[in-house]
Design brief:
Two copies of one chain form a homodimer. Chain A has seven helices and no strands. By secondary structure, the first copy, chain A, is mainly alpha-helical. Chain A is elongated. At the A-B interface, helix 1, helix 2, helix 3, helix 5 and helix 7 of A face helix 1, helix 2, helix 3, helix 5 and helix 7 of B.
C-alpha cells in the first residue's frame, strides 16, 4: 500500500512513466502534510502556560486536523485505485454493441469515483487552510513558520486536486453530476488564493 | 534516514510534538514531488511521435529535474541535521565566560548551516517552477495536470523554505551573511507568485 512506501521510493515512482502514483496522490500527501503541521503546532501549543487562553481551541483543532490527516492518507490510495479503475475500464473489449455499452458504462462509473476522490481532497484541503489560519494567529509563536508551511501545503493540495476534478468531469457524460461537482469545486476554491496570502502574511508578521 | 521512512510514519512524526521533522523537511519533500512530476511529464513526452519537435528539450529538462530531485531528497535529511545542530548548540553549558563564548559560536555556526539548507531548497524550487513552465506548455497534453501539480508543489516548497531562511537569519549575529542570504532569497522569490499563477493558468487552458 502506498502509505507504507518510503519517501524515496515514492518519489522514484512519481517520476517514472507509470501512470500511478501521479498528481492525485501527490495532492493527498501535500494535504496530509498540511494537516500534520497544523497538528504539530497544536501539539506544541497545548499545555503551555503562555497559551492557556487558547488551549481548548487548540485541542479542538488538533482533533479535527487528525481526522483530516487520516482521510487524506486514505486518499493517496483511493486516488490510485480510482485511476486504475478508469484505465481498466478503457481497456475493456469494444467489438460488439453490447461490449461497447458495458465498456462505456464502466468508464463513466469509474470516472465518477475518480472525480469524487479529488473533490474530497479539495474539501479537506480547504478546511486545513481554515485551520492553519487559527494556528498561525494563535498558536505557539516559536513554531509559527510551521503554520506557514501548513497553509502553502494545503493550498498546493487544493489547487492540485482541482485539476484532477476538472480533468475527470471533462470526460463525464452525466452532465448533471459533472456540473454539480464543478459548482462545488468553485465554491471550495472561492477565496482560497486570498486566504493563503493572508495567512502566509500573518505568519511572516509573527516570525 | 528520513528518505527511508514510510509516508504514513513520516506524517505521524511531522504531526508529533518532536521538533524534527518539521516544516523544513516538508518543504524539501514538496520540492522533490515537484521535480518528480516534471520528470514524469518528460518521461511521458520523450519518444512520442507527436512530441518529436520537443524531444531533445524534454530530455534536457528530465536530466536537470532528476539532479534537483536528488538534491532535494538530500535536503530532507540535511534540514533535520542542521536543526538538531542548532538545538544541541543551544543546549551547551553557559556557566563561565569561556563556555558562553563557545556556545554562542556553536549556535551561530549551526544557524548558518540552518540558513543555507532552506536557501538551497528555495533555489532548487524556483528552478523547478521554471522547468514546470516548459513541460506545462510543451509536454504531453494527456499529463498536463501533473505539470500543474508540479508547479504548485514547487511553489509551496519555495514559500516554505523562505520562512525557514527568515527565521534562521533573524537569529544570526553575522549581519553581512544574514543580509546576503535575505537579498538572495528576495531575488529568488521575485516573480514567483506571478509565475505560479501563469503556469497554473496555462495548465487549466490545456486540460
Amino acid at each position: 500500500m502506498i502509505e507504507d512506501t518510503s519517501l524515496e521510493v515514492f518519489l522514484n515512482e512519481l517520476a517514472s512513466k507509470t501512470p500511478t502514483p501521479g498528481g492525485g496522490s501527490a495532492a493527498a500527501i501535500m494535504g496530509g502534510m498540511g494537516a500534520a503541521l497544523v497538528a504539530m503546532v497544536c501539539n506544541l501549543t497545548i499545555n503551555k502556560k503562555a497559551y492557556e487562553a487558547v488551549d481548548a481551541e487548540m485541542r479542538d483543532i488538533l482533533q479535527r486536523a487528525e481526522v483530516l490527516r487520516e482521510q487524506l492518507t486514505g486518499m493517496m490510495r483511493q486516488d490510485i485505485e480510482a485511476f486504475d479503475r478508469v484505465m481498466s475500464a478503457y481497456g475493456l473489449p469494444r467489438e460488439t454493441e453490447a461490449e461497447k455499452a458495458v465498456r462505456s458504462q464502466a468508464i463513466q462509473s469509474a470516472l465518477k469515483d475518480a472525480t469524487e476522490v479529488p473533490l474530497a481532497c479539495a474539501r479537506a484541503s480547504a478546511e486545513i487552510i481554515a485551520l492553519s489560519r487559527v494556528v498561525a494567529e494563535k498558536g505557539n509563536k516559536n513554531v509559527v513558520s510551521d503554520a506557514g508551511v501548513a497553509v502553502v501545503a494545503a493550498y498546493a493540495a487544493l489547487k492540485s486536486s482541482a485539476l484532477s476534478v476538472r480533468v475527470n468531469t471533462g470526460a463525464l457524460s452525466d452532465v448533471s453530476f459533472a456540473t454539480q461537482s464543478i459548482t462545488e469545486l468553485d465554491v471550495i476554491l472561492d477565496g482560497a488564493d486570498t486566504a493563503m496570502r493572508e495567512i502566509y502574511q500573518e505568519v511572516v508578521h509573527r516570525l
